[in-house]
Structure formats: structure tokens, C-alpha cells
């Protein structure tokens, strides 16, 4: 499990777990640090995908099925132990949703809450643009990276750093672009879904997420662009929401 998951703050007696899924090109460290902020009732697992950090020598995932299969097979024993929730940002929202659907299909297990951020629902036409980001020229790709923000300046200003970072980002974007999810005829999940998004990000079809669950649904818009969640004030709001819902879900689970 250590290959797939980063857990800086292990809490074996925690009441619930929060499983965090990275954005495109992202590693596990950012969300792993969330474990310090939550209290002892919540243990945070942060997913580490192949091709980055300690898995840098591994080949990138080719499609969503490959990612979901690894996550479900490795984490299933842990997910059966206690209530858990998923949080994903952007690409991580798609991988968290796909993982939740797979878990329900193979063993009837669901997160008590799905928190998604910074992207349209997987079946929404708003996900697809005329030009695929993964196929942009190097110049146009760097321009796009600059416009969305979130990439450290030391990466953007260093050709060597870009050579390491850009392939990871393009690989994840390629997986997202190939991930086609048809609009379901009925709800595929029964857990509650909460959407977060930045007010200054490109518009996302958040309402469409409601069509994927029979559970409660709500949207929270926070100030900022695509990486609004890196702002300390926004991060606190997100964590307060997660904590509140996990406490309620934990009681319902019992």
C-alpha cells in the first residue's frame, strides 16, 4: 500500500478516512499534509499515481481503468474497515468518481461522501474542448499552464524542471480526455456529493453532478481561479465542510 498511498499522519483509531485524489500532474504530498489539520477522528490517505515521486520510474497510466483497478485492489481491505470519503480536485474528481463507481459495482461499497472540485461532471459535454490539452504544442501548452496558475514559478522558469513535470501532466490529461462516461439512466451512486469550485475559474458544469447520485447534493463557490483550494482561507472552508459531513456520516454509518 505504501507505493500507492502517502499517509504522513497515521491514526489507526480514527473513526473515518479521507482518501484524496491529485489533480493532473500532481503528486501525493499536498493532500497528505491535510492529515495534520484534521483532528484525530480522521485519517488522510493521499493517492500517489505512477510516474511521479517514489514511482517516477514507473510508466504513466494509459487509461482510467488502469488507475481505478490499482486503487480498488490495493485499498479495498482498508475501505472495508471504517467509513471513508473521497476528495478529488480537477482530474482527481474524475478518478475519485470512477473509483467510487467501481467499488459499488464490485462489492456494493460506497464512500459516505464524495467531494469533487474544479471540474464538470464526467458525462457533461462541457468537459470536452475543440483542442485537446495533451496534444497542444510545447509553446501553447506552457501558455495554458501559465493561465490556469497553480504551477510553481521554479518549474515554469526552468527547462529541466519542465522536462520532468510536463510529461506527467500531459499523461494525466490524456487519461482524462480518453475517459468517456455516458449519462446514466438512473443514479449510479447513493452517497451525498458536494462540489467546490473557484469563482474565477473557467465555468464548469457542476449541476450535472447531481444526476449521478440519489443522495444530497450541494455546491460551494469559493474565491479564486483553478487552484483556489491552495489559498489558506479556502482550504479551511473546505476542511470545515468535510469535517462536518464526516462527523454526520460517521454517526449514520454506526
Could you characterize the architecture of this molecule?
The protein is of the alpha/beta class and 254 residues long. The protein has helices at residues 29-32, 34-37, 64-79, 91-107, 138-148, 153-156, 159-178, 232-253, and strands at 5-6, 16-21, 42-47, 84-89, 113-117, 192-198, 217-222. The chain has a 7-stranded mixed β-sheet with strand order 1-3-2-4-5-6-7, sandwiched between helices. Strand 4, helix 4 and strand 5 (113-117) form a beta-alpha-beta unit. Helix 3 (64-79) crosses helix 4 (91-107). The mean pLDDT is 91.
Summarize the helices and strands and which ones pair or pack.
Blueprint: E1 5-6, E2 16-21, H1 29-32, H2 34-37, E3 42-47, H3 64-79, E4 84-89, H4 91-107, E5 113-117, H5 138-148, H6 153-156, H7 159-178, E6 192-198, E7 217-222, H8 232-253
Keywords:
single chain, 254 residues, 7 strands
Named CATH topology = Rossmann fold
Query: What is the overall shape?
Result: globular
State the low-pLDDT regions, or none: none
CATH C-level class: Alpha Beta
Oligomerization category of the chains in this entry: single chain
Counting DSSP H or I runs of 4 or more residues, the number of helices is 8
Work out the radius of gyration: 17 Å
Number of domains: 1
The helix/strand class is alpha/beta
Distance between the termini: 27 Å
Largest sheet: 7 strands, mixed
Mean pLDDT: 91
The string of secondary-structure elements, in order, is EEHHEHEHEHHHEEH
Fourth-level CATH superfamily: Alpha/Beta hydrolase fold, catalytic domain
Strand order of the largest sheet: 1-3-2-4-5-6-7
CATH architecture: 3-Layer(aba) Sandwich
* Tally of DSSP β-strands: 7
- Indicate the proportion of strand residues: 5-15%
Helix content: 25-40%
Family: Belongs to the thioesterase family.
GO biological process, one term: medium-chain fatty acid biosynthetic process
Catalytic activity: (9Z)-octadecenoyl-[ACP] + H2O = (9Z)-octadecenoate + holo-[ACP] + H(+)
Keywords: Fatty acid biosynthesis, Fatty acid metabolism, Hydrolase, Lipid biosynthesis, Lipid metabolism
Amino acid at each position: 500500500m505504501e507505493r500507492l498511498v502517502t499517509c504522513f499522519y497515521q491514526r489507526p483509531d480514527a473513526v473515518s478516512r479521507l482518501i484524496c485524489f491529485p489533480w493532473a500532474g500532481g503528486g501525493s504530498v499536498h493532500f497528505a499534509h491535510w492529515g495534520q489539520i484534521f483532528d484525530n477522528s480522521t485519517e488522510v490517505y493521499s493517492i500517489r499515481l505512477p510516474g511521479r515521486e517514489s514511482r517516477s520510474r514507473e510508466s504513466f497510466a494509459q487509461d482510467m481503468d488502469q488507475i481505478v483497478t490499482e486503487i480498488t485492489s490495493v485499498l479495498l481491505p482498508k475501505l472495508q474497515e471504517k467509513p471513508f470519503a473521497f476528495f478529488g480536485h480537477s482530474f482527481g474528481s474524475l478518478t475519485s468518481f470512477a473509483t467510487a463507481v467501481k467499488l459499488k459495482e464490485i462489492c456494493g461499497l460506497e464512500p459516505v461522501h464524495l467531494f469533487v472540485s474544479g471540474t464538470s461532471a464526467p458525462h457533461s459535454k462541457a468537459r470536452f474542448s475543440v483542442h485537446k490539452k495533451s496534444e497542444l504544442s510545447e509553446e501553447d501548452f506552457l501558455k495554458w499552464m501559465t493561465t490556469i496558475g497553480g504551477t510553481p514559478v521554479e518549474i515554469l522558469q526552468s527547462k529541466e524542471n519542465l522536462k520532468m513535470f510536463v510529461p506527467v501532466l500531459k499523461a494525466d490529461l490524456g487519461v482524462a480526455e480518453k475517459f468517456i462516461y455516458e449519462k446514466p439512466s438512473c443514479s449510479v451512486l447513493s452517497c451525498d456529493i458536494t462540489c467546490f469550485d473557484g469563482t474565477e475559474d473557467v465555468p464548469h458544469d457542476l449541476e450535472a453532478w447531481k444526476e449521478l447520485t440519489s443522495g444530497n447534493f450541494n455546491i460551494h463557490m469559493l474565491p479564486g481561479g483553478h487552484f483556489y483550494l491552495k489559498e489558506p482561507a479556502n482550504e479551511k472552508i473546505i476542511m470545515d465542510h468535510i469535517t462536518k459531513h464526516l462527523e454526520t456520516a460517521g454517526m449514520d454509518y454506526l
